[in-house]
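Working notes for the structural subgroup meeting. M.R. asked for a predicted model of this chain before we commit to crystallization trials. I am recording the input and output together here so anyone reviewing the notebook later can reproduce the run.

Input as submitted:
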Amino acid sequence: MLAPALAFTVASAVAAAASLQTGIPTRLTVQLIRRCPPGAICSPPDVVRAMKREAERIWTALGVQLDWIELSSSTPASHPTADLVVMLEEHPNPVVEGSDPGSLVLGRMHKPTTPCDAGVAHLWVAHVRHQIESVYVNGLPLISVPTRFGQDLLARALGRTLAHEVGHYLLGGTHARYGLMRPQFSAQQLVETLGEYDLDAASRRTLMARTQRLRQCVPATIIE
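Returned structure, recorded in token form:
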């Protein structure tokens, strides 16, 4: 689970070294489901695409490639099922079950029952948006900057939240003292240009073991 407040900063060489140490590459299939209620003003397609790119950027540096399943009316009746299903929750006033009143839960991961089962992650867009509204850009509050720039920052924040939840799918429910898997992100750290998305030594060992187990899973299919 990701709550608001975290710190990040590391050179790309460190991330590349982490990838080598884990002995990947590995591919993770992700299905994104947008849950936008009728009448709500939900994220434009550009924001969703940029969110995915940000999550991909973080995990590519760590040796994991995210492959997206896009379902449509022309989707074949049988195709590979997702390793991880991501629910993009776009209700303007979400209620997150089990959270404290007034708290901003940005994301939550429901771990699979077995290593070969799919995980389910939830991202609450309204909470992420509210969290970054406290950021000032060139002395101006975020809500007063041009719409396109604000959308870029929202996409970055959503992508980092998503990358953290992908980490919970791969690494389990524990958090680290620094890097991608720290328990909290500050508003500034969600949107800053540079950041630290490394994994500590224990997380890298867990990632290596987890990806080895995933390779042993028999590919499944879903029939619609």
